[in-house]
Amino acid sequence: MRARIGIIIVTLAFIVSLSPHMLIYTVPVFVIGLVFLWISKHRRKTKIIWSLLPIVFWYPCFLASMFITSTIGTTTAQKFDFIFEKDFKGKAVIIEKMPCGQEVILKNDREQLIIPKNGILLYQGVFETGYVNHKYYRKLNEVDVEELPRRSYSMYFESELNPPPKNDIGVWHEGTGTKNIYFPKPAIEYKPMSVIVSSSDSLNKYSEFQLNKEFESLTDSLVRVDKINCTQHRLSANSGYSNGK
């Protein structure tokens, strides 16, 4: 009976530990399972096998689990196509739930984000959290586009054997967040998602304080105008419709 309990605990701890966030909790549980197993009257060979196999197979099973989870997560994630102007470089930000922003445009089940020249897209759609499924393009002319590669800081670590050329243009996903505008009143909260179109050797200049301050100031002003003016326009339109009716 003790051996069966121990094997069950070891098995469950192994399965749950494949999630990296749970590893710290499952190690003590795994040890408890081994204690149950080793104080049982089961054969010594079985005890050794159940003690060593989870340790030996954990890392390859962990990698396989991460690959499968990532593949499924990316496939089922919200799909965005970012479309930039031909010569666009720098920071771009997309603001969700903007009442007078770009409408949701679907093409092949992917939401099309048409980024304006100033890099600030007010968007009526909503961002889902979780895995990312983004593709990035820039216009060549009115019809054709070319895809831009995705970039990340890890691609340029010293341990990387074949990093991309530092002068090649790519897109760096910075993620989403929450921003508040407190002045002037009324206070407004909005959620931006930002990316940077740049080569690796030019990336630092888009982190400069003054440049980011000016960009955020312009973003705040556009968000405020959209939130307040569009809401007022809709209220006025609805009021006019009711009175006419």
In terms of DSSP E residues, the strand content is 15-25%
Structural class, by secondary structure, is alpha/beta
Mean pLDDT across all residues, rounded?
A: 88
Shape: elongated
C-alpha end-to-end distance:
78 Å
List low-pLDDT spans: 235-245
Q: Sheet bearing the most strands, described?
A: 5 strands, mixed
Description:
41% of the residues lie in helices and 22% in strands. It is elongated, with a radius of gyration of 26 Å. It has two domains: 2-75; 78-243, no CATH class. The model is unreliable at 235-245 (pLDDT under 50). By secondary structure, the protein is α/β, with parallel strands linked by helices. The strands form three sheets. It has a five-stranded mixed beta sheet with strand order 3-4-1-6-7. Strands 5-2-12-9-8 form a five-stranded mixed beta sheet, covered by helices on one side. A two-stranded antiparallel ribbon has the order 10-11.
